[in-house]
Amino acid sequence: ILESESRLRMMVESGRVVPYAKAGPDFLTYNYISERAAAVFGRTMAEWERPGAWLEFMHPDDRDRMRRSAEQELPPERDFEWEYRLTAPDGREIWVRDLFRVDHKVDGSLELRGVMTDISSQKQRELALEESQRQLEAAKNQAEAANRAKSSFLATVSHELRTPMNAGIGFADVLNGEAFGSLNPQQRDHV
Fold it and tell me: Where does residue 29 fall: left (phi above 0), alpha (psi -120 to 50 degrees), or beta otherwise?
């Protein structure tokens, strides 16, 4: 048991995973949270142990959504996965993937058990990829618009040049056919 516990502790303490448990039925207070919470999320254990700490640390843009999610009934024996941001004391956003379920303890009471994982670097890559795709789409749309403008410009210029050019070419053909008399070599060269 000690060896198994040691192995489990090493695995938990070496990653960016924070196991936790919250007592039911309201699941507001942690009755267990790994000491990794302090290192991963930058908050002391005393801060994590305060009632409502989770919502208190929630990023303002996610707080209402997560409050509504937490207020919904969380049926036992079902897996849940939530993504949200926590705010570190230094103002840094930390993206969290929270995997949990509600189970019955031996005494029949409910306990929410889960793991929070810092997925900030993955989210930053996803957001950067989305931004790159938006920029590529915008550049593609801009290139297509430029291509349409070029085609329209060329069609207009071609039409505008062709009309006066046809008169000049027609008159040159008339002169070349010597309709007004013979042309000397210099006149023929000019025509």
Answer: beta
- Tell me the residue length of the chain: 191
Q: What is the DSSP letter of 72?
A: S
Alpha carbon of 25 to those of 49, 64, 113, 173: distances in Å? 17, 20, 13, 98
Per the listing, tokens 């303890």 go with 105
Q: Are 82 and 52 in contact (CB under 8 A)?
A: no
Q: How far apart are CA 87 and CA 120, in angstroms?
A: 12
Q: Measure the CA–CA gap between 148 and 91, rounded to whole angstroms.
A: 47
Return all residues near 2 (Cβ < 8 A) that are at least 6 apart: none
Computed from CA positions of residues 75, 81, 82, 86, in that sequence, does the dihedral angle turn out positive or negative?
positive
How far CA 154 is from CA of 144, 147, 163, 164, in Å, comes to: 15, 10, 14, 16
Q: Write the pLDDT tens digit of every residue in 54-93.
A: 889 999 999 999 988 888 888 888 999 999 999 999 999 9
Tokens of 15: 């990653």
Strand 93-104, strand 30-33: pairing: unpaired
Backbone angles phi, psi at 100, to 5 degrees: -155, 170
Amino acid, res. 15: G
pTM: 0.65
pLDDT digits (tens, 9 = 90+) for 179-190: 888 888 888 887
